């Protein structure tokens, strides 16, 4: 399946956020779920299983000055193999204007056995933009080894590189679950917090396999591995 | 045929300060994740798959940039520094752990000192100035260019260094049999060659497109290691 979803959020001029554009197509359905705050919350509802090998799903997000957009998913997505072994791909392209804020807080991605998945995200933050960006990867469903998955994230701030990271798991990569990478943990993830107004802090150890890292730029990254999705979320909640 | 300069730079006895770093092995041993030769093998596979492509690609890209400058007519136009600033910023964005950023810069500074005295060149002046030193792959890229090596050789030295640092640290930390460790390195040689060749092949790309592999435990354990009061290795 090929599909494109588009969300454009703008300040409504009364301290709130309105969705100037909200358009999805199967299997990417979008629902505006007002929560009474100044932010606009959109839930992404997968109307089909997957992503499935061969799928090419694109999500485009724009957040204007003064707008706050929160994007969530209703359930974990499960990357599954296609019939012919072809790759599934989900790409997210987001742009946030100065004074705007994007919170990208989806549920986990589960890399099921035999999958061949690529998640590719590119975020362009103007100077003064804020961002919360969570990524959680679960290696395989219960009791199975994962297929191959790559989660690649690229974030610019004010035109300069802020974060470039690409996490690869699965049998095609020697050492992926070994002591230099995941140490046998089945869950790993990160939460990027970009806020130019936040006071810069030092690194902080949050647990035996979780740390908060100040980046070179107005941002911190919590990085963690855990035995399961629940424990992982404990480190990445905010 | 490889030159003697290539052997000098790849040699662990070259005074570049690399012996002070275990590349995360000390922390992995302390956490009980590496206890024996099989654990070291798995650790080194991870270092080769995740750290080596990034380090070798940035070394090769820096080498290529520096070699082109070295062949161009000599002038000190400030625009010549721009490609190095971009490489520095892109590598910084790939190094999320402050402890690893510092370890890379400290090793870069030590290598730069040794390189400048061994193969004097005006190319070193293009490296971005930073109080903790240039990132190690940038320092290595410029040093290999000053030494007259090829882009492939520069990538090879970088990938090889990713392997040998923790391998020699393993002998000290775990008391492993050095012959068995050498045997392990020989078995990993083919994988190391492939990663070096792939890195050299992408050296011409824009720095944004270079590999960005992240290994969560490398970042996490580097920060935990940095909080220890007593440690054998700097990283």
UniProtKB/TrEMBL annotation, chain A:
GO cellular component: cytoplasm
UniProt xrefs under Pfam families: UreD
Protein name: Urease accessory protein UreD
Keyword Zinc-finger: no
Localization, UniProt: Cytoplasm
Gene label: ureD
Function: Required for maturation of urease via the functional incorporation of the urease nickel metallocenter.
Keywords in alphabetical order: Chaperone, Cytoplasm, Nickel insertion
GO MF terms, alphabetically ordered: nickel cation binding
Complex and partners: UreD, UreF and UreG form a complex that acts as a GTP-hydrolysis-dependent molecular chaperone, activating the urease apoprotein by helping to assemble the nickel containing metallocenter of UreC. The UreE protein probably delivers the nickel.
Family of the protein in this entry: Belongs to the UreD family.
Native organism: Catellatospora bangladeshensis
Automatic annotation (TrEMBL), chain B:
Subunit and partners: UreD, UreF and UreG form a complex that acts as a GTP-hydrolysis-dependent molecular chaperone, activating the urease apoprotein by helping to assemble the nickel containing metallocenter of UreC. The UreE protein probably delivers the nickel.
A Pfam family reported for this protein in Swiss-Prot or TrEMBL: UreF
Main location: cytoplasm
Gene Ontology MF: a single term: nickel cation binding
Main function: Required for maturation of urease via the functional incorporation of the urease nickel metallocenter.
Places the protein is found: Cytoplasm
Family membership: Belongs to the UreF family.
Gene3D superfamilies (alphabetical): Urease accessory protein UreF (1.10.4190.10)
Keywords: Chaperone, Cytoplasm, Nickel insertion
Record-level GO cellular component terms: cytoplasm
Protein name: Urease accessory protein UreF
């Amino acid at each position: 399946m090929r599909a494109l979803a588009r969300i454009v959020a703008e300040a409504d001029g009364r301290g709130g956020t309105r969705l100037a554009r909200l358009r999805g197509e199967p299997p990417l359905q979008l629902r505006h779920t007002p929560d009474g705050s100044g932010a606009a919350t959109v839930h992404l509802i997968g109307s089909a299983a997957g992503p499935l090998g061969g799928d090419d799903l694109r999500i485009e997000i724009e957040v204007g000055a003064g707008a706050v957009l929160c994007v969530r998913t209703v359930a974990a997505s499960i990357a599954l193999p296609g019939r012919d072994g072809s790759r599934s791909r989900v790409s997210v392209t987001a742009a946030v204007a100065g004074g705007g804020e994007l919170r990208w807080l989806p549920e986990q991605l589960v890399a099921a056995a035999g999958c061949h998945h690529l998640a590719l995200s590119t975020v362009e933050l103007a100077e003064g933009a804020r961002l919360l960006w969570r990524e959680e990867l679960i290696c395989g469903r219960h009791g199975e080894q994962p297929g191959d998955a790559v989660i690649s994230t690229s974030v610019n701030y004010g035109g300069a590189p802020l974060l470039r990271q690409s996490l690869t798991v699965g049998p095609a990569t020697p050492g992926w679950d070994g002591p230099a990478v995941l140490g046998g943990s089945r869950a790993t993830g990160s939460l990027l917090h970009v806020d130019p107004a936040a006071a810069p802090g030092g690194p902080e150890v949050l647990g035996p396999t979780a740390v908060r890292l100040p980046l070179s730029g107005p941002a911190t990254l919590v990085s963690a591995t855990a035995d399961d999705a629940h424990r992982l979320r404990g480190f990445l909640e905010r | 045929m490889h030159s003697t300069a290539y052997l000098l730079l790849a040699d662990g006895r070259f005074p570049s300060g690399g012996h002070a770093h275990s590349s995360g092995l000390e922390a992995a041993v302390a956490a009980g994740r590496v206890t024996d030769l099989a654990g070291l093998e798995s650790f080194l596979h991870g270092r080769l798959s995740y750290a080596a492509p990034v380090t070798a690609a940035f070394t090769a890209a820096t080498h290529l940039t520096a070699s082109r400058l070295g062949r161009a007519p000599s002038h000190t136009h400030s625009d010549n520094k721009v490609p190095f600033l971009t490489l520095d910023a892109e590598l910084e964005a790939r190094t999320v752990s402050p402890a690893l950023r510092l370890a890379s810069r400290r090793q870069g500074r030590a290598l730069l000192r040794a390189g400048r005295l061994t193969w004097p060149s005006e190319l070193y002046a293009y490296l971005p100035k930073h109080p903790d030193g240039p990132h190690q792959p940038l320092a290595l890229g410029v040093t290999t260019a000053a030494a007259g090596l090829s882009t492939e050789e520069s990538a090879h030295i970088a990938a090889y260094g990713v392997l040998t640092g923790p391998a020699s640290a393993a002998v000290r930390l775990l008391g492993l049999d050095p012959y068995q460790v050498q045997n392990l390195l020989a078995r990993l040689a083919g994988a190391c060659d492939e990663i070096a060749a792939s890195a050299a092949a992408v050296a011409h790309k824009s720095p944004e497109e270079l590999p960005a592999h992240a290994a969560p435990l490398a970042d996490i354990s580097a920060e935990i290691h940095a909080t220890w009061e007593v440690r054998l290795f700097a990283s």
